[in-house]
Amino acid sequence: MISNPERQFKAMMKISSKLIRLIKQSNSFVITGHINPDGDSVGSCLGLALGLKKIGKKDVTVLTKDPLPESLEFLPSAKTVKHSPPKKECDLLFILDCNTLDRTGFESISAKNIIVLDHHVLPASTARSGFHRSLAECIIDTGSAATGMIVYKLLKALKIDIEKNIAANLYAAIIVDTGGFRYSNSSPEALRIASHLVEAGAKPWSISKEIYENKPYRSMKLLGLSLATLERKNSVAWISTTDSMFKKTGATPGNCEDFVDFPRKVKGVEVAVFFRYNGTNAYKVSLRSKGKINVQKIAKSFDGGGHAPAAGCRVTGSLKEVQDKILKAIKKEMKK
Ligand SMILES: [Mn+2]
Predict the structure, then answer these.
(1) CA of 118 to the centre of ligand 1 (A)
(2) What is the CATH number of the domain that holds 327?
(3) DSSP string for residues in 75-104
């Protein structure tokens, strides 16, 4: 059978005329992403906000619950990001790069209509929720490497000229989620859109330099302490970051976004795990697979989410308890 992922992709992802109409009719917009914002979440939000401003929308607020990681502060318009919702009701709320209100970190954001644009699988507990039935539009395209690609298509459908500041934000979104075009989601479409963005003025080296070659000193110190915890059992390797490591280095959770990549680098490792202190008796668990194991299934069993090669969840318990639970779940998934 000849497979044509490109055609499949196009068939899956459709910008409806209803969505276009809704945007054109609306005057006030709030755009938000997920907690612990990453490059895709922030780049998508800012790219969309700049695009809407280009078609004369003046009342556009980009909102993130948590502060931006330092590595994303260079993104055009990053300084405009707000951290508490506007008091008045907006016409249209965009939830990007996640698909539940819970993941945005906000209890409520008052809006006449809500749109979800995302590429993550729905968490098990929310698949049938009233929230999803209430959405004016919900595009969840798991075939998109980054939400930034969905935003790109939306801007194109709105006939918005993608200038260099929009391009830089969307390019950053795509490189972060494809690991600089190394991951299995680096589709022809992802590369093609990235190519258009570079033509539109995104500067690959200056963006990569800001994101990858600009680590705060305390982040590297934290990485050092975390790497010292490296353990391995067969094809699973893991590292951890504890409360005392955060205290010792002054680093923040945003400083360890890529830590899970390190245990994955170990030869012979199939599944890598990063355990990050997440408040008393709770850990944030990041899971990565080199391809054979679907770690999204493991995350989902702890009510987390993500993709087959990259997923995450929050688990309560002491570090030892959380590690035991997760390593057991990985072992079970590997036996299948
Ligand atoms: Mn994403």
Answers:
(1) 7
(2) 3.10.310.30
(3) STTGGG-BSS--SSPEEEEEEES--SHHHH
Q: How far is the CA of 313 from the centre of ligand 1 (A)?
A: 15
Residues 6 or more apart in contact with residue 71 via CB below 8 angstroms: 39, 210, 211, 214, 215, 257
Distance 296 CA to ligand 1 centre (A): 14
Ligand 1 center from residue 1 Cα (angstroms): 30
Q: Taking 90 as the threshold, does the pLDDT of residue 56 lie above it?
A: yes
Domain that holds residue 35: 5-211
Residues 184 and 285 reside in one and the same domain? no
- Over residues 150-167, the mean pLDDT reads 98
Using N-to-C axis directions, what is the helix angle for 188-199 and 164-178, rounded to 10°?
Answer: 150
Ligand 1 centre distance from Cα of residue 9 (Å)? 16
6, pLDDT greater than 60: no
- pLDDT on residue 127: 61
How close is the Cα of 149 to the center of ligand 1, in Å?
10
Q: What is the total count of domains within the chain?
A: 2
According to the model, what pLDDT value does residue 204 have?
Answer: 98
Question: 38 alpha carbon to ligand 1 midpoint, in Å?
Answer: 8
* pLDDT of the residue at 12: 53
Cβ atoms 49, 30 nearer than 8 A: no
Instruction: Based on the fold, state whether residues 37 and 162 are members of the same structural domain.
Output: yes
**Is the predicted pLDDT of residue 188 greater than 70, yes or no?**
yes
pLDDT for residue 319: 98
CA of 271 to the centre of ligand 1 (A): 20
Last residue of a domain, one of 196, 211, 226: 211
pTM of the predicted structure, to 2 decimals:
0.84
Going from the Cα of 211 to the center of ligand 1, the distance in angstroms, rounded, reads: 15
